[in-house]
Amino acid sequence: MVKIEYLTPATPEERKRYYKEEWNIKQVPDFISNTIQDREFGFDHVGRGPNDRYKVFRNPDFLRRFLKVRTPFAAYSSVAFYDKPMRRDGWKGAELVFDVDAKDIPVRTCECDGVCEICLNEAKEIVSGILDTLNGDLGLKNIHVVYSGRGYHVRCLDEGVMGTDSDVRSQIVKYIAGVDVPENEYSLDFEKVSYEHFVIPFGYPKVFTDRIKYSILHLNDKVELDDVNKKLLKDVLKYRNLIETDQWGVFKGNIGPQRYKKVIKGIASLNMGLVDAKVSIDLKRILRLPSSLHSMVSMKCTEVKNIETFDPFKEAVPKFVYERK
Ligand SMILES: [Zn+2]
Fold this sequence. Notes:
Elements: H1 12-22, H2 30-33, E1 41-44, E2 52-55, H3 60-70, E3 74-78, E4 80-84, E5 89-94, E6 96-101, H4 117-136, E7 143-147, E8 151-156, H5 159-162, H6 166-177, H7 184-187, H8 206-218, H9 230-239, H10 241-244, H11 248-255, H12 257-270, H13 277-281, E9 286-288, E10 293-294, E11 299-300, E12 302-304, H14 312-315, H15 319-322
Bound molecules: zinc ion.
Residues 108, 110, 112, 115-116, 118-119 line the site of zinc ion.
């Protein structure tokens, strides 16, 4: 296997080579090129954040020329559509987005301080869960996944969500991440619903169960959970193999019903970190432009066609990385 020096910054020389030799306007996804005149663009030319904002391009060819000449450190476009994007005026709607950054996943099994193959894979698993929920529970169809360089953006352009406000978006995030403990569980008698263990334990919606399960299976003994002491955490780790096989009732029996509630609550609030909620509720956010270079880590921000088979280390590594000495 070729040793790739990924995840180290690109030099200005490498950036130039990338935009002049490798980057192509066709790599900008249609969902952006087709709406280019409605979006605000932002650029970071030196690596201190996107302070060249309010840029507009009447068509993809203007964007092409700009990128070829300026070879920016980073490029972004708005999730919002505007009548007058050069002033961020006349807001017409915004994509509903979910930002899963591998660096910020609440429980990581790797010990890297940036991002690595392990946590990027965990981010991918979380994205798969989000896609299932958006499609299966919310019926959304116009969904695009973008590998950002350090994680994933899930971007929905369905008409039904484009016009929603921050409050609605914040509720959707909580639902998707499994943050709000559904109230019905506590009102249900354990005995009465025991036959349901194998499918949806205690009447929780499937999405909530899935997120709790995911997080319990990824816990380690260093995690801090609200109201869960070391002894309880130890017991959770001891019995979590029961969760793996969906024996929630047996798990609850071993932990004890009161302590079980504490565990569920603790995990639910931990789940808030699965997606960056600030990104989802911001109606004027700019997001890294697919096809652009993430110069900090020398990877290409790339639209993902198939999340199951996508491998960032195969599909998002620019050529210059292979040619480094
Ligand atoms: Zn890692």
